[in-house]
Design brief:
This protein has one domain. Helix 8 crosses helix 10. It is an all-alpha fold and 329 residues long. The longest helix is centred in the C-terminal third of the chain and has 28 residues. Strands 1-2 form a two-stranded antiparallel sheet.
Amino acid sequence: MSSIFSKRNMVIALIVLAFVIPFVLQNQYYLHILTLACIWSIAVYGLNLLAGFTGYLSLAHAGFFAIGAYSLGLLTVKAELSFWLAFLVAPIITMIIGTFVGIIALRTKEHFFAIYTLCVGYIIYLIIDKWDSLTGGVRGLIGIPSPANIGPISFDTPLSQYYFVLVVTLLCILMVYRIVHSLTGRTFIAIRNSEELALSLGISTAKNKLLSFVLSTFFAGVAGALYGSFIRFIGPEISYTTIMFDFLTYLIVGGIGTLSGPIVGTFLIVLLSQNLQFLQDYRMLIFGPLLTLLIIFSPRGIVGFVLTKYHQHQRKTSAVLKDARAKEG
């Protein structure tokens, strides 16, 4: 029975469910929401790589998300590049800007780093909002194309766009998984646990922190580019602090520093928000206390809570088996 519910089988089952669910729901509105949730989760994975595994909370993440979206929009609408070329270039532009920001930001630590990146995020918002000739200002950028056809494969329908975003989401999750389980990922975790100890072991913390920061901006850029191509209209509000704190909420609820936390938290909050639309602004009366209780009783979120209980159960089971074998001996 335990082999049936192994981690590998559960992952395969969830992937199959993700591909099958559009045919089960047969609802265009929910398909739209699921596509958006996939896009948000990519951005949250980037935030988790830096905040959860390296221990540096960047509050400029929504700004980099907007840079990815506007890079795709400007390259396709104003520069008239092909969609696929613009889609490849947009995250690279985001990473280049992220590198310059990270070099300065990572000279600070802890709450100073968070405050500095919050200021950077707001500056990005102001640039987008005020640079009317480039970004369109408050009017936004209209007419961003959807993904171009690849031979006989078209992306004109909501279903095809959902599958395109889903495939990119799965590739991004696989990338994060490989990063976290690599030597580089273990270095990030060592910096999170004790930067001084990592330094004493000969780890170049400055280089690895910058790498983590740049990788987080890459995922934000990918998510932003997907958002621009899916919605096809973007405005400065996508870089505002409310979006940043939405990302942070998804991460905290799902489980910061866990591999499945970003997607669990994002889908849970997004779907719950849509089902509580009738409450309008009063939704926060529900989310606020629930989030507070979650932070108090399970700082590592839902996934962290489940993993903790699972490990406790495993330790109890192994202790019982050990006692039983001792008695038999």
